[in-house]
Each structure stands twice: as C-alpha cells, then as structure tokens.
Specification:
By secondary structure, this protein is mostly helical. It is built from six helices and three strands; from the N terminus they run ααβααββαα.
C-alpha cells in the first residue's frame, strides 16, 4: 500500500542493510577492481553484455547513462585490454556490435564470485535461526517482486 506507514521505516531499514553489506564488501571490491585495473562503469558495461548479449555503443550508452563519446571511450579501453570485441553490425554497417570476449566473461564471473563470497561471509555472521527465517521471507519477497503483486504470507 502506498499510504502504509511501515513503508518509510522499511525503506530506511533496507537502506541501512544494503549500506552495511556494501561496507563489508567495499575493501575487497576496491582491491579487486585495482588488481584488474577496471572501473565501475566498465564493470556495469560488462555485466550488461554478460546478461543481455552483444549490444551497440548506443544501447550501452543508454544503460550507463553516459554520452555516446564517453561510452565509446569506455568500450575502447575494454577492447584494448581484450575484454570486449567489436564487429560490424549486419543491420547497420556504420555501427559496431560489442561482445564480451572469453577474458571479459572470466572477469565478470570472477567479480561475481568475489561478491558472492563477501555476501556469504556477512550472512554467515547472522544467527543460524535468524538466517532460516530471513531465507523464508526473502523467498516470499522475491516471488512477489518477480510477479509484481502481493503474495500471501505464512501464518506466524
């Protein structure tokens, strides 16, 4: 419900939860980014290519909310490092289609594994009984958010 007074409180709680998780991951994530010599926009670009397949610079620009020029520069840097490939777009030969290379896929997968380990370490610090309850509620929330509508909650 839009007028539900619990929405602002829950929103603040979720923001604090996300901040705590991010702060626990920040050091490791920054270290890995430095080791890989990769920026956050480059990571977002590579995730978009990993999840959505090959795209042209305009589509990547829209995802990143960057200018075409800035996106083109970002893609050039990834290309120089062997993370992405460029090919002529068969539908419009003036455009280039950008795809992840095997090195790019491995980099995205490595970043995902690191994030999973970091979140797993934080989850391991939660009381086991509370973890079970949290898992049950997260399952219900995910179902509801995926469907876009309410899901019945179990009786307490």
């Amino acid at each position: 419900m839009a007028g539900d007074a619990s929405v602002p409180l829950l929103t603040e709680q979720l923001i604090e939860l996300m901040a705590l998780l991010h702060s626990r991951m920040a050091g490791d994530a920054m270290g890995l980014m430095a080791e890989l010599n990769i920026t956050m926009p480059q990571i977002v670009c590579m995730h978009a290519l990993r999840g959505g397949g090959a795209r042209n610079v305009g589509a990547i620009s829209n995802i990143l909310s960057l200018s075409a020029s800035a996106t083109s520069h970002l893609v050039d840097k990834l290309f120089e490092r062997g993370m992405v490939s460029r090919a002529e777009d068969p539908a419009d030969r003036r455009q280039k289609v950008i795809s992840l290379t095997p090195l790019g896929v491995e980099t995205v997968d490595r970043l995902a594994r690191a994030r999973t380990e970091q979140i797993g370490a934080a989850v391991a610090d939660i009381d086991p009984e509370l973890r079970v309850q949290l898992s049950q509620f997260v399952d219900l929330i995910l179902i509801q958010l995926r469907r876009g509508g309410p899901t019945a909650c179990p009786e307490s």
